[in-house]
Design a protein that fits this description.
This protein is mostly helical and 116 residues long. The protein has two domains: 3-71; 84-114, no CATH class. The chain has six helices and two strands. The chain has helices at residues 3-16, 21-30, 42-51, 56-65, 69-81, 103-114; strands at 89-92, 95-98. A hairpin with a 2-residue loop joins strand 1 (89-92) and strand 2. Helix 1 packs antiparallel against helix 2, helix 1 crosses helix 5 and helix 3 packs antiparallel against helix 4 (56-65).
Length: 116
């Protein structure tokens, strides 16, 4: 995961401090253009917060302070431990399901886990 992905994850957590995690999350997805292409620079992430009318002073302080750096790094390490190397990847009871899968694929995996 590149620096911009890490910064974007931290920024989303900072938006969450203002109850805007999912709104910010959706904004990130609608403004991405490839990893480490500049879309998620810290300046852009701060601009996104302003676009969403968040308290930019609080948001910028949160992002600049690295408040969520350890949390994001921990989550990244957990994902890597599960074998996550790309998106989308899902965890079903600690097992990685890699790639865009059908409902039936998930159902089969869950049914197998629930079987006696």
């Amino acid at each position: 995961m590149g620096d911009e992905s890490i910064w974007a994850a931290e920024a989303a957590e900072c938006a969450g401090d203002q109850d805007a995690y999912w709104e910010y999350h959706d904004y990130l997805f609608s403004h991405q253009n490839g990893e480490n292409q500049g879309a998620f620079s810290k300046d852009n992430l701060k601009s996104f917060a302003a676009d969403l009318e968040l308290d930019t002073e609080a948001f910028n302080t949160c992002l600049d302070s690295g408040k969520y750096t350890d949390f994001v790094n921990e989550q990244t390490n957990i994902a890597r431990g599960l074998g996550v190397q790309s998106t989308p990847t899902f965890a079903v009871n600690g097992q990685a399901v890699i790639g865009a899968q059908s409902f039936d694929t998930f159902k089969q995996q869950i049914d197998t886990l629930l079987a006696p």
